[in-house]
Amino acid sequence: MNYELIIEIVAVITGMLSVWFSKKINVLVFPIGIISVLLYVFIFIKNELYANAVINFIYFLISVFGWWNWKRTNDKSLKSKGDDELKVTFLNKKESVISSILVTLSFFIISTTINSDLVTKLDYCTSILGLGGIILTSFKKVENWISYLIADIVLIPLCIYNGLYLTSIQYLVYTILAIMGYISWSKEARQNV
After folding, report:
1. Which of 193, 185, 109, 84 has its CA nearest to residue 144?
2. What does 131-184 look like in DSSP terms, one character per residue?
3. Is it the case that residue 79 has pLDDT exceeding 90?
4. 90 near 80, Cβ under 8 Å?
5. Which range has the worst mean pLDDT, 9-18, 73-82, 117-126, 140-149?
6. DSSP character string of 33-84
7. Those residues with Cβ within 8 angstroms of residue 23's Cβ, 6 or more apart along the chain or in another chain
8. What is residue 73's predicted lDDT score, i.e. its pLDDT?
9. Are the CB atoms for 135 and 150 separated by under 8 Å?
10. Whole-prediction pTM value?
11. Is 178 exposed, middle or buried (0-12, 13-18, 19+ CB in 10 A)?
12. Distance between CA atoms of 159 and 166, rounded to whole angstroms?
């Protein structure tokens, strides 16, 4: 078995575990996810999916923040209603508008400035969706699952096209977990109102 396949297998397993922990609202989403995203930096560079390589490095940085944000205890200005840990919530109207504008603007910039093939443009678009998802996850916002769901659906054929068959299966599983996560987090958010 070649080393690239072993790296992809470990990245897939840790990635799936990370999403499972996220669905369960368990802080292990971040340390396990860090392993996966760093491995994917290597995988995506090797397969010339540079936007996804960059975004996975950014996921690493945001995961460090998210890990801290979920477990913080010393910054009273960031605490959710006096609790030590954030509570799962929906975006408020202002956050929804800002998120929608940022995503729309990003897609517009990609479609009008990147003179490349469809695969490259899809790579950038899924990177934007993933970035939005990890940021929303770090603040325990339910809508992270919508962002991930759309990105996962697009990434399945993109990975197949690039010969990343295990990773495409991973994104299929992520699609299912994103649906389950959205349902689970929505119930949790309604209880936190």
Report:
1. 185
2. HHHHHHHHTTBTTHHHHHHHHHHHHHHHHHHTT-HHHHHHHHHHHHHHHHHHHH
3. no
4. no
5. 73-82
6. HHHHHHHHHHHHHHTT-HHHHHHHHHHHHHHHHHHHHHH--S-GGG-BTTBS
7. 177, 180, 181, 184, 185
8. 47
9. no
10. 0.82
11. buried
12. 9
Residue type, 43: I
- Please state, as a whole number, how many other Cβ atoms lie within 10 Å of the Cβ of residue 76: 8
With the C-alpha atoms ordered 46, 48, 53, 54, is the resulting torsion angle positive or negative?
Answer: positive
Distance linking the first and last C-alpha atoms of the chain: 51
**Cα–Cα distance for residue pair 111/113, rounded to 1 Å:** 6
Q: Tens digit of pLDDT for each residue in 19-75?
A: 999 999 999 999 999 999 999 999 989 988 787 788 889 999 999 999 998 887 445
Q: What tokens were used for 81? A: 């209603």
Token reading at 95:
């956050």
Residues in Cβ contact with 109 at an 8 Å cutoff, skipping those fewer than 6 apart:
none
Sign of CA dihedral 29, 35, 40, 41: positive
| Tokens at 17, concatenated | 């575990």
b/e sequence 104-119, b meaning 16+ C-beta within 10 Å: eebeeebeeeeeeeee
